[in-house]
Amino acid sequence: MTLDIFLQHLLNALQWGSFYALIALGYTMVYGVLLLINFAHGDIFMVGAYVGFFIATFLLGIFSNAAAPLPTWASLLILILTILGSMVITGGVGVGIERVAYRPLRERGASRLYLVITALMIGILLEYLNLSILGAADRGFPELIQTKIYTVGGVSFTNIKLLVIGLAILVMVILELIVRHTKIGMAMRAISYDKVAVPLMGVPINAIISATFVIGSALAALAGIMYGSAYHVLSFDMGILIGWKAFISAVVGGIGEIRGAMVGGFLLGFIEVFVVALGQIPGFEWLSSTYRDLVAFTVLLVILTIRPTGIFGVARRQKV
Amino acid sequence: MPLLQIRNLTHWFGGLRAVHDFNLDLEEGELVGLIGPNGAGKTTVFNLVTGAYRPTAGEIWLNGDNLVGLRPHQITAKGIGRTFQTIRLWNELTVLDNIRIAHASRIKYGIADSILHGQRYRKEEKEIKEQAMELLTVFGMEQYAHELAKNLPYGAQRRVEIARALATEPRVLLLDEPAAGMNPGEIGELLDLIQQIRQDFGLTIWIIEHQMRVIMNICERIKVIDFGETIAEGTPQEIQNNPKVIEAYLGEEAF
Amino acid sequence: MRKLYLPLLILLLFVIIIGGSWLGIINDYWQLVLLFIGINIILTVSLNLINGYMGEFSCGHAGFMAVGAYVSGILTVWLFAEDKVFGPPVLPVAWAIPLFPLALIVGAIAASLVGLLVAIPSFRTRGDYLAIITLAVNYIVKSAIENMEVIGGPRGFVGMKRVMNNMADVFDAPWLLIWTFIAMIAAVLIIRNFMASTLGKGVEAIREDEVAAELMSVNTRRIKVIAFMLSCGLAGLAGGLFAHWPGGYINPGTFTILKSTEIMVMVYLGGMGSISGSIISAIGFTLLLEILRPLGVFKWVVIPLLLVVMMLVRPTGILGNRELTDVFPKLRAFFGYEEESYALASD
Fold this sequence. Notes:
The complex is a heterotrimer.
Chain A: H1 3-34, H2 41-63, H3 72-107, H4 112-134, E1 139-140, E2 149-152, E3 155-158, H5 159-181, H6 183-193, H7 197-200, H8 205-231, E4 233-234, H9 238-253, H10 258-279, H11 291-306
Helix pairs in contact in A: 1-5, 1-6, 1-8, 1-9, 1-10, 2-3, 2-4, 2-8, 2-9, 3-4, 3-8, 5-6, 5-8, 6-8, 9-10, 9-11, 10-11
Chain B: E1 4-13, E2 16-26, E3 31-35, H1 42-50, E4 57-62, E5 65-66, H2 72-78, E6 80-82, H3 95-101, H4 111-116, H5 119-138, H6 154-167, E7 172-176, H7 184-200, E8 204-208, H8 212-218, E9 221-226, E10 229-234, H9 236-240, H10 243-249
Parallel strand pairs in B: 3-8, 3-9, 6-7, 7-8
Antiparallel strand pairs in B: 1-2, 1-4, 4-5, 9-10
Chain C: H1 5-23, H2 28-53, H3 61-80, H4 96-119, H5 127-146, E1 157-158, H6 160-170, H7 175-196, H8 198-208, H9 210-215, H10 220-243, E2 249-250, H11 257-270, H12 275-291, H13 299-313, H14 324-327
Antiparallel strand pairs in C: 1-2
């Protein structure tokens, strides 16, 4: 594998890992605060992509003019409005689910198991609600940014790829800053540390939980729009596999840790892209791309068997 | 030879030395106390002896068998029973089941028998059930047998824990603050109970306790630790007058 | 005397179901529904051992079902049917009738061995992380099957229909239904008997307090291995039966997380740690799926909605951790041993 091919795959891996990382953040934040695996989160990603699709199509309908192509500033404006709009609406969906389905259960002191099953059910509900309302046909995500291909020394990449990677890293840095340095972030960390004492200290626990769901869902929406811009195909079940994989990323990194989500996401992206890449090298043809999932899940199994709390996760010693 | 021998037992939690160079010889039939201020490492010693933690260094011998490195259930099967500082009954199970399960190491029937319920299974299960009921009768708790453990009053739960520990047929019984949370009346009953089971079951007892009334009343010998170090050892009278002990406890507990 | 009621009831059911199917009184559609009910009861009761009694959260039960389905399906096709890949039947076709249950058992054993993939990590890993391991095993199994071209890869595996037809040619009887019924009764009895034994009670002790269980002489590792192998083996048994369904094919797409979720839902609906609850909910849920069939995809909007609402109304499932005999003590005269099900006797 020559260097330029390697770099090419590296870029692909970074983009692919960015989706995982962005979705994994939602899993990890909710888990950190509630110890709940929000299995509906992959479908929130799907919701975000579809909401973005509708906003973008609607805005394009207003702005577009049959005579002339859209000026750059207009398509940029549409992109920004789409992202913001979808983030707001999807954040609302996320917090709505929390209010309607999770919070009542929590307040009743139901076992966490039931919360998880509820989350699974909400996921299925979102998928099939989409399927029954919008039908089985895939939707084509509109091209908001003209795809441009750059080539630097044998490595070619698109502006969208750069945007995806850049945005993912930017978001991660901002989030880390929020969690480390703002009041709400400190409250989140405090709640994940001690669920009993923190509310007694006057921290409005429900407000913090709502904020967590809003942020997590909004990030999934961002990932959804980026995904749509990169691959242009939306389907009702697009969130399932990518959601599970993102969840694996979160766990591999150490669920509850923001850095863990990022590292786990990129790691899984690398593993998957390089399994496929290796299969193209003579001598490795047997490693067909269908092995991608098998390898990804096996890695998870091995990591969890060796290090049961993930890369960054800290084991909390059980007191005897 | 002492029944339980502990030599140079040391344990580190990361960078914190919780127990250092702990030594003890427990003779058959003795009743020995282990005291010390909060966080002195008393429960850690119990956890090391019962295998819940693996010691960083040191040796533990029970009747000539080395216990270090064995898994907790193996150590229990060799004859060390214990109770916990905070009650750890299996709450959603009945009192009888709590006692039954503690017979686990003596089950001889196999997996197939546990499913097919053959002759041997029925014979063994009958024995286990009878022994468990007998034990509950000794504790005067047979009326609670079919009650869920969590529904019992606090003092009764404490007694079930002791009964459960006895069901493992220990030679040495470790009691971790059995009087915690009890009122003076209950403590009196507890003292009687300890004396009674000690005689009936021929037990060697090692007890951690904060209630000085318990310690001074029943222990023949007391060991005092602080910050993981042994600071004194002797009869209750000697301990009461030991300046080091008084210093360690100053402001902590009124002697 | 009272112990005879239950065997008699089972015998009666057997005669009605099998006799009815044999004589054609029960039509093909209802036979299929009965088959799925039986399979779902095995799946639900077996998963209940892990999720209900042991308090762990296994969400990959369909993976073990897949192992059993493929192993016993391949075995019967190889032994008793003409096949493109495996050639002519290895054994005389008539032998299929006595050997069919053995093929099922081999499938179950294979599934229980794959169960070790979960049982061994469970020594050190608990709760959510173990849940993830079960999930990973589910995906690994599915993905591994997809990559085995010999057995059809993602397209699936066929040929079991010929096995069943061959068996019916030798002697005409609803063989699959017969073995499903027997396997279902066996599965229920296995779990019930195991959980009544002192050895099996260790499973519940692990749920309540694993550290205390180990310190009170329960060999928790052994118990976990037994529980996972039993549970996964029974899932494999259910899979083996499923492989021979009249549809005649199995494919990896059947054994996804969605299937695992379905089994989990049935366990939850009946109540964690309740065998009678599991049976009731497996029957109810299978029938519900059939009733809602006319809704098409909309079915999967209605079902999750129903479940979410039910979760809010009754967050412990139909029976909670109780048995039917606890709720209706009079039933105790008909079912079960006297010494069991104390849970509520004194309430």
